[in-house]
Structure formats: C-alpha cells, structure tokens
Amino acid sequence: MKKEINILENSHLVLSKLSQGILLTTKVRNQINTMTIGWGTIGIEWREPVFIAFVRLSRHTKEMLDEAGEFTINVPNEQTDQSILAYCGTRSGRDTNKIQDLQLTLVESDTIQTPGIKELPLTLECKILYSQAQDYDLMPGSVQKSIYPHVDPEQDKTSQDVHTMYIAKIQKAYIII
Ligand SMILES: Cc1cc2nc3c(=O)[nH]c(=O)nc-3n(C[C@H](O)[C@H](O)[C@H](O)COP(=O)(O)O)c2cc1C
Fold first, then answer.
1. Residue of 51, 59, 88 with the most ligand 1 atoms within 8 Å of its CB, for mutation
2. Which pTM was predicted?
3. What letter does residue 162 receive in the DSSP assignment?
4. Nearest residue CA, atom 11 of ligand 1?
5. pLDDT tens for the 177 residues of the chain, in order
6. C-alpha atoms less than 13 angstroms from C-alpha of 123 in its C-beta half-sphere
7. What are the angstrom distances between the C-alpha of 87 and each of 34, 63, 97, 112, 116?
C-alpha cells in the first residue's frame, strides 16, 4: 500500500536525511541499479515540483540516467538498516547487482518504469526534465581543490569527472506501507 504525501509540504522528510544518504534508483532494460546520494534538493521550476540530483560522470548511474530519463528516490526511516546506504555508496552497478546482493524489495511505480524500494519507504517518482554538466572553470577555486582535486583543467572537458545536475519533475510522492 502507498500513502500519498504533498512533497512541497513535506520536503524536510527528504532533505533532513540527505546527509546520511538516500537512494537514487535507475532502470535500463532488465538492469535495475541503485546508488547512495548525499547531495540534492527539492524546489520548483517551470511551475513543477522538482528533485535535483548531482551525479558524477564516472558513476554507472550516470550512464543509466541518460538512457532511462527517469529515476526513483527512496528515503530511509528509523527501521532501515544503515548498511544498505554504505553498500550502495561504495559498490558499482558495473560490477555487481546491489539490489540482489542486499535482497531489497522492489515496488512497482505508478507513473514510471523504475521501481521503488520498500526498505526505504518514502518514495519519489521522478521524470528528468533537464540535465547539465557543471562547468569546472566556473566553480570557486576552493571547490575545485576540495571536491575535484584530480581534475586536470587542461584536459578534454568531456573526460572531467564533474557532477551533472539532473532536474526532474516529482510526479508522485508517497510512503510505502
Ligand atoms: C553517503 C554517500 C553519499 C554520496 N553522494 C553522492 C552524490 O550525491 N553524487 C554522486 O555522484 N555520488 C555520491 N556518492 C557515491 C556513489 O554512491 C558511489 O560512487 C556508488 O558506488 C556509485 O554507484 P554506481 O557506479 O552503481 O552508480 C555517495 C556515497 C555515499 C556513501
């Protein structure tokens, strides 16, 4: 069962958990992959409620997002085993099936193909409206040094491991019960 929530009135339920990590899940053909994210925000653009995620170029999730055009967000509660977030934040879907390894329970979404995850009950169904790689040259020097120490500013821009910003319409928000 799903209990629908108004995401703009309840954004704190998501934002307050970000610092410990929440899950962003993608699906391309038969592969379902999830990764931990700690950066993101909820707001309004183009008159729509949006979730904005920041995903590094090197993540397997980035390739999947670009193909799928959608994702789900799942937020842990007090019962959630915190080791799920550590595992999904250190293993890549290129090497292993994290959903199977952790025996996570998938729940079909109502408006997109990507499922949610029951063990992290608060779910957002998100459709990507816009994505843009952030420009290393426009970042403050302190951020360049602390977050992107390995980027060589002289190298080809397409190989810089910067974050891409994904702005996605929150189509539905609910708690799986
Ligand atoms: C607490 C935590 C927060 C993280 N936040 C982000 C994030 O916001 N963006 C990002 O690109 N990677 C983030 N990561 C790293 C990815 O979760 C990690 O590289 C993951 O293994 C990528 O999986 P994938 O290759 O299957 O996409 C975070 C990791 C942890 C542990």
1. 59
2. 0.97
3. P
4. 55
5. 999 999 999 999 999 999 999 999 999 999 999 999 999 999 999 999 999 999 999 999 999 999 999 999 999 999 999 999 999 999 999 999 999 999 999 999 999 999 999 999 999 999 999 999 999 999 999 999 999 988 776 776 666 789 999 999 999 999 999
6. 28
7. 10, 20, 11, 25, 17
* Side chain identity at residue 8, one-letter code: L
State whether the Cα torsion 140-146-152-158 is positive or negative: negative
Contact 117, 34 (CB under 8 A): yes
Distance 165 CA to ligand 1 centre (A): 14
Give the DSSP H/E element, type plus range, for residue 28.
Answer: strand 22-28
Name the domain count of the chain.
1
Q: What is d(CA 145, CA 141) in angstroms, rounded to the nearest whole number?
A: 6
Residue 170 sits in which domain range?
Answer: 2-176
- Main-chain phi, psi angles of 73, to 5 degrees: -115, 135
CATH code of residue 21: 2.30.110.10
